[in-house]
Structure formats: C-alpha cells, structure tokens
Amino acid sequence: MSSTFAGRRIETGVTRPFSWLVIYIVVTGALYFLVTHVPMGPVRIVQPTRIDAQIAQLPYTLPLYLSYLLIMPTLVFLGRRREWLLPVFFAAALASGTCLLSHLFWPTMIERPDSTSQWLTWFYQIDSPLAASPSGHVALPVAISVVLGYLRVRQAWLFALWSLVLMITVLTTGQHVLLDAVYGAAIGGTAGLSTLMLTRLRVDLRTMAAILLEWLCIIVTLRIALYVSHWGLYGVAFVIIAARQHALFILYHDATHYHLTRHRGINDFLINLSIGVPGTVPVEFYRPLHLEHHQHTGTTSDPERRFLYHRQPWAFRPLSGKLLLKQLLGDLFIINMLRNLRAYKDAGGAPPRMTRPVVAAGIVWLAVLTFVAWQTSAQTMWLIALLWFGPLATLGNLLQKIRSIAEHSGGPGVTPGWQEWTYAWKVGWLGRFFIWPYHINLHLLHHRSANYPWHVLPSLVSVGDPLLDSQTLPSLLWSGLSSPLDDAVHHTAIDAQRRTGGG
C-alpha cells in the first residue's frame, strides 16, 4: 500500500482501517439515532405501490436484513491490506452520508403492515419507522459494489449478491417499499460513480473525505441549531462552526500546494467550492502570498510580516497582558482583518482574478443558495448567514491568528532552545479541534517538505526532531508567564509521534 511521491515512498491506502471503521460507526450511528428519534420537519408518509401489495411478508428473512450491520466490518476486514479499500470506503461513506442528510432535511416514515410474526412484531417495537426513503440498506452495498466491480476486485461478487439480498429483504420484512429501494440504489450508484470520477481525476480521497466530514459537521450543527431555535444553542453552534471553518482552511492551505489533485483547474475548483468562495478567499488570491511566504519565511519580505500583523501589537515576541488582550480582541472583532486588507491594498495588491474555477464554484454556490432560499423563510436565511459569516469573521479569524503566531514566532534567540523560524507542536485532542487540525501542528515539517500532503507529515518526523508542548503556547504569547520553554522541547521517535497524531 505505498507509492512514490516526490521521490519518497508513502502509504496510499488506509493505514488504520479499524480506526476508520470505528469513526464511521460512531458518526453514522449518532446521525441515524437523531433522524429516527427527532424528525426536524414535516414527516412524509411513504405510500406503497401496487407491486408492494403483492410482496409477502417473510419473517425468516429478518436475519438477512440485519446482515446490513456486517457490511462495513466485512469490507474493512477484507480490504485491510488492500489499496482498493480507500476508494470503496469513501464511496460507502458518501452513500450513507447522503441518505442520512436526506432524512435530516426531509423526514419520511413507512406505515408498516400488521404482522402475526413474533420476530417482526419485536423488531418493529425496537426500530423506528422513520428514515424510510431513501433506503440506506440498499445505498451502502450498491455503492461498494459499483466501485469494487469497476476496480475488478474479486470480492465484488459478494457485495453485489449482498446488495440483491438486501433489496429483497427490505421489502419482505416490511421495512421499506419498492420506491425506497429504488431511490437507495440510485444514491448508491451515484456515490460509486462519483468516487470513480474523483479517482480518475487523481483527487486525494483522504482530503476530500475530510472536507465532506467537516461540511457534514457544519450542516448538522446548523440544522439542529435552527430546529431548536434557542440562543444558547446558537452560541454552541457559533463555536463549532468557527472551529470547522478553520479546519476547512487548513485543507485549503494544502490545496494551495496542489495536494488535492495535480489537475490544477480541478484542484482550484474543488477547494474554492469547499471553502474558498463561501469563505470569501479564493485560492487564486491566497496562493501567491503563501508561496512567497514559503520563499521568504522569517524575513522582512515575508507577507505574514508585511501584512498579517500590520499596525498590531504582535512583534513575534511574548506580549504584556494589556497588549496581548488588545491583539486578541482586535482579531476577534475584525479590526486587525481590516488592517491586513489596508496594508495589502497600500502595497499595491491586486484583487483576486475571476478565473474559471472561481466562477464555476460561484455558480454552484449561487444555485445552492437559491435552492435554500426557495425551501426556507427569509428569517431562516438571515440566521444561516449570521451563523456562517459571524464565526468566519470573528472567532474563526482569531483561531487562525493564534495558529499563525504558533507556527512562526520569534525564531532563533527568542524561544529558548529553538533554532528555527517555524515551530512544530505536540498537541492533544482539544488543540487539534480548535487550533491544529490535520497535522498543521507539524508546520516545521511542512516547510521542510512542502511537496507532501497533510496526512504524510507524521511519517516525516524523525528521531530527534523537536516538538514544543502545546501547553506552553500561553508562554509564547504572554510575557507574564515565566515557565521556560526549554522544558517544552521534546525529542520523540516516529512511533511516539504517530501515537499522538499520526495519519
């Protein structure tokens, strides 16, 4: 499961398949519980067709119906050492996620027939009739079958047969009607074909999966907040959305180096669609500045030093409490962002070019917003705008500034024991959620090896590479803390780094 990338052999398959399986089960399980217990809209009752009336109940097919629970564990077990697991797992997750989002926004329910079977009566009591259409039971194995069949994997016949069995048993157990199965098959087929298209375009499916997962988190958070409609939950949503926007910008940073795909137009379209356009920073604007930053890191020509901290207290050394508060509040309340833009404009900076990737992404977002406006009220649209642009301009901006300070601070002679202009950090789960998602904590490794995508960085850590402890970040910011940073420089082996944050 390896290939040559920029002269170095790296892993291209799923390196920790059972961890992926656990994440999949937790995420889809939580969403399935939500959509089957809390319908967030008018529930549409799915009506059976004449064909459904002719289908007999077969209680003994219930175990075959329940075999759905074994599909993903079986897939991971069979593909745990195979490169094909990555695209197949991606297609499966895409199909499941699409079905769950459909249930989240357009709840459906089936009216189950009366049954004299104790098995079916028992099962009806423990399983909700909600989340009926489309059928995820059908979508999942169909998506897997499509990708396995195209890749000519020997096990394709198993999942194709499994798809057929589940198509039949969702009907014979009274859990779905024919149209549910048809819609599920359509979603599964579309997910499989979409995955194959991304694969042919050599899109990094790890990054694409991360982008989709972040958007799933944002969409579900928005949906719940709007449904509950309470100021306290709006506040929680504000924080979560800001953190996930920040995570999307880390993946955007990776796409700046064309790590999403080497097809440059596709790379820029996908990342502009993902966050560049909705985040109001097209990648065509950011890329020249970022590449110049790599070329002149730590010098007076570095764009971060010319623009990012223009007329702000931060001068790459710890600040007094008063100045630090002024710096952070300036970032939180947009003041410093306006100073950045003013400095860029005064330096003769040009606005972003309207390239085809930007225009195409803008058209897609215009279509999406038109559809949302058609489906919702004007008040809901205002709330959505507030919960998107509010975090983006305030807390999200603050998180990005703290990360930037943590990546490039005083350099040699300022941080004790550190001889680089760029830092690398040892971080925990809280730091990963807010400040350092997707291995951006290994920023020193990124600057040394910018040709590698984010998920390769942990494998580049060598014995003896220093890592600052994230708990000492306040000492880097505030001069009032006297704890020496020398003790924070850790020498860790590759295995130790992988335990704390490996890909």
How would you characterize the overall build of this protein?
With 503 residues, the protein is mainly alpha-helical. It folds into two domains: 15-200, Vanadium-containing Chloroperoxidase, domain 1 (Up-down Bundle); 232-501, no CATH class. The protein has 24 helices and seven strands. It has helices at residues 17-37, 50-53, 62-66, 71-79, 85-105, 118-126, 136-150, 156-172, 178-200, 205-228, 231-256, 264-276, 283-295, 303-308, 321-332, 335-346, 356-375, 378-393, 395-407, 429-434, 443-448, 457-460, 473-477, 494-501, and strands spanning 2-5, 8-11, 44-46, 108-110, 425-426, 466-469, 489-491. It has a three-stranded mixed beta sheet, covered by helices on one side. Strands 1-2 form a two-stranded antiparallel ribbon. The chain has a two-stranded parallel sheet with strand order 3-4. α1 (17-37) runs parallel beside α5. The chain is elongated and about 80 Å long. The two termini are 14 Å apart. The model is unreliable at 1-11 and 486-503 (pLDDT under 50).
